[in-house]
Amino acid sequence: MIPRIAVTSGEPAGIGPELCLKLAARELPCELVCLADPALLAERARLTGAAIGLRPYAAHGRRDSARQRHEPGTLLVEREALRAMSAPGRLDARNSPYVLALLDRAIDGALAGEFDAVVTAPVHKGIINDAGVAFLGHTEYFAQRAHAAHPVMMLTAGTLRVALATTHLPLAAVSAAISVDSLCSTAAILSRALTQWWGIDAPRIAVCGLNPHAGEGGYLGDEELKVIGPAVERMRRDGLAARGPLPADTVFVPQMLAQFDAVLAMYHDQGLPVVKHAGFERAVNVTLGLPFVRTSVDHGTALELAGTGTADAGSLAAAVQLAIELGRR
User: Fold this and answer.
1) Whose CA is closest to 5, among 27, 34, 41?
2) How far, rounded to the nearest angstrom, does the alpha carbon of residue 101 sit from its chain's CA centroid?
3) What is the DSSP string of 6-62?
4) Of 158, 170, 130, 123, the residue nearest 15 (C-alpha)
5) Where are the domains of the chain?
6) pLDDT (tens digit, 9 = 90+) per residue, 81-136?
7) Which residues on neighbouring strands pair with residue 246, listed in sequence order?
8) For residue 160, which phi and psi values (nearest 5 degrees)?
9) Is residue 260 predicted with pLDDT exceeding 70?
10) Which H or E run includes 324?
């Protein structure tokens, strides 16, 4: 089967639209459908010199139609109209409903089986909130729209996989947000995904501590003693190959990483800087716990690069490639 992959073009003032055009120039073993305003793509193609032929997806097919392998130099486009003219690098809150409409269309299509996976280009959280919509990020939005009770954010770069116990929270709120139940649920979703999607039997999970030196026996914080340690004990009783709490400053040493298939970090900036250092512009964000496959780039909207044609499409291409692999499974 040729998987049908939906790619949302993201914030129109950012690099998302031109990354989609760069992606369209590549050989891809899928049918690629870009969700965007065709006029925006055409204007960005003119600015960046991208010779891509745009074709309407709406006239092509829906769920039961035969997939057609992507033709390099062309791009199927599912049209969603901009709410206001968009210029590269200039955010406009009037286009926030457009950005969310792209996500809604992708989610609805994935839930209906029309799309085998969804890949998202970057959005700008601030401008969406400026438009009056409480938006924490793709992970939370997809989970809410898909009625997924417990989404798990994971970034991958090659064999390095880091999942998060909490996602887009202020650091001061992390301690109160983790519990034995939440950590065990996150670890179970992570373990199941590694088995189902990556084919790893009995995945080995390293569970990070929250505090320096994993709390130093309670002298540098007691979350490890009261929450994380008991959670790891329950994980092991439930049959998970989990170990921890481990100091986050040493768990990412190569000799330690070799002993695990994934790391469960307690908060966003505990784990993700390591992944991005190891594989920036080829790392992929994957949302676990959804009823469909969703991957994304590992970077933001890069407003300063928008319209220049210099943005690297490597992370988007990697996200599509992983979506193809997982979508087939």
Assistant:
1) 34
2) 18
3) EEE---TTSSHHHHHHHHHTS--SSEEEEEE-HHHHHHHHHHHT---EEEESTTT--
4) 123
5) 1-148+292-329, 150-289
6) 999 999 999 999 999 999 999 999 999 999 999 999 999 999 999 999 999 999 99
7) 208
8) -85, 120
9) yes
10) helix 314-328
Q: Is-contact 206 264, C-beta < 8 A?
A: yes
Domains 1-148+292-329 and 150-289 share a fold: yes
pLDDT value for 35: 98
CB 204 within 8 A of CB 243: yes
Q: CA 190 to CA 183: how far, in whole Å?
A: 10
Answer left, alpha or beta for residue 229, where phi above 0 means left and psi between -120 and 50 means alpha.
alpha
CA pair distance 171, 189, nearest whole angstrom: 23
What angle (nearest 5°) sits at the alpha carbon of residue 16, between those of residues 12 and 22? 130
Q: Pick from 28, 116, 25: which is nearest to 69 by CA?
A: 28
Instruction: Identify the CATH number of the domain defined by range 150-289.
Output: 3.40.718.10
Residue 241 phi/psi, 5-degree rounding, is: -90, 70
Report which residue type is found at 31: E
Is CATH 2.40.30.90 correct for 1-148+292-329? Answer: no
Tokens describing residue 279: 């594989």
Which DSSP symbol is given to 264? Answer: E
Contacts for 103 with CB less than 8 Å, ≥ 6 apart: 8, 120, 123, 138, 141, 142, 145
Query: If we measure between CA atoms, which residue out of 256, 274, 253, 254 comes closest to residue 265?
Result: 274
pLDDT of residue 63: 56
Label the pairing between strands 262-265 and 241-246.
unpaired
